[in-house]
Amino acid sequence: MKVSEVIALAKGWVSAEASQAPGFLAAHLGGSLSSLPQQATFPLYRDLDLYIISQAEKDRHIRPYLYKGLMVDAQFSSPKYYQSPELILANPHLAYHIAADTILSDPTGMLQALHQAVKKEYSQRQWVTARIEYEKQELILPALEAPKFNALVLYLVIVNLGGLIAVADLKNPTHRRSLILLKEMLQARDDTTLHDQALQLLGSAGMSRDQVSSYIPHIQEAFRRAVTVYQTPIPYVGHKLRPDREPYFIAASQEMIDEGHHREAMLWMLGALHLANTALQNDAPAPEKRAFQARYDSLLQDLGLSKPDDWQQRQQRLRRLVAHFFNLADKIVASHPMIRD
Questions:
Q1: pLDDT at 278 over 90
Q2: Please, what are the domains in the chain?
Q3: What DSSP state is assigned to residue 177?
Q4: What is the pLDDT of residue 60?
Q5: 155, 164 contact by CB (below 8 A)
C-alpha cells in the first residue's frame, strides 16, 4: 500500500472513530510514516502510529485497532502536551511530526497554528539541544539507572541511543530500525565506530544471517502462545500482545534480515522475545514457563549474557558507550549545517 493510501485510511479512521469520541480536538500522524514520501510503499506488517488529542484524556494511553488491514496504534493524549509551540519544540516525540505537517483532523485549527510555529523554529539550536537533553535525561539515563539491568534495559538504552543521534541529525527517531538508521547516519560521517560498538554491546556483531534467522520460529511460537495466555498487564507494551500484531514482530524482523541487516535486527527480535517471555512467565502453565524460559536463556547465551558477571560487564560497557554517544550528539549539533542559532 502506498503512503498516500495509508494516510487516506488514517483520515478515514479518525473521522469514523476518534472524532466521534467525547472531547475530541485533533489528530496527527506519528511514527515512521511522517518521514516517508507519499509514493513510498508502506508494508502492512508495520503499525500506523496516530496521536489523538482529546479533552477526555488526562495522560497518554495507547489503544490498538485493526482498520481495513492497517494495524493502528492510537495514542490518546491530553491537550496539555500541545499548549504551546515551546512545549512541542522541546519534545522529541512530537516536534518532528508537528514540524512535518502530519495533520489528519484539526477542526479548531489548533494543530495548524502549532505546525507553522514549530516548523519555523524546529532547526534552531536551542530547541535541538532541548530535545537532546530530553533524550538523555528522560529516556536514556533513567533506563541505565534501572534497579535491575536486564535485556529490556539493554534494548531500551540501545534503541534510544540511536534515537539520540537521529534527533541531533534532525531526523525522525525510530525503534525497530534504530540501529539501521544509526549506521546510515554514521556512514554519512565516514565513521561507523559507535555503530560497531553498539552491535558488539548487543552481542550480535559476529552473528551470521542464518543464525539470526533461526530465532524467528522460536519468537513466533513464543508470541503466539503469549497472546493466548496474556492476563497480567505489562506496562507500555502489553497492548502489542494481540494476534493481529504478529507481523509487526515477525515479518518486520524478516524484512531487516532480508535486507542484510540481520545483526541490527537482533535488537528488535530481543525486544519481541522479551515481551513474549514476560507474558509467558507471568501467565503460562508451569511446564510451559520452563520450556519457554530455556529458549529465552539460549538466546541470551548466544548474545554472551548467560552469567551474572556477563550482565555486570555489559552494564559497565554500556555506561562507557552512552558517554561516547552523548559526546557525538553534542558534536553533531555544534557542526550541523542546518542547525542555526
A1: yes
A2: 3-121 (3.30.460.10), 127-308 (no CATH)
A3: T
A4: 85
A5: no
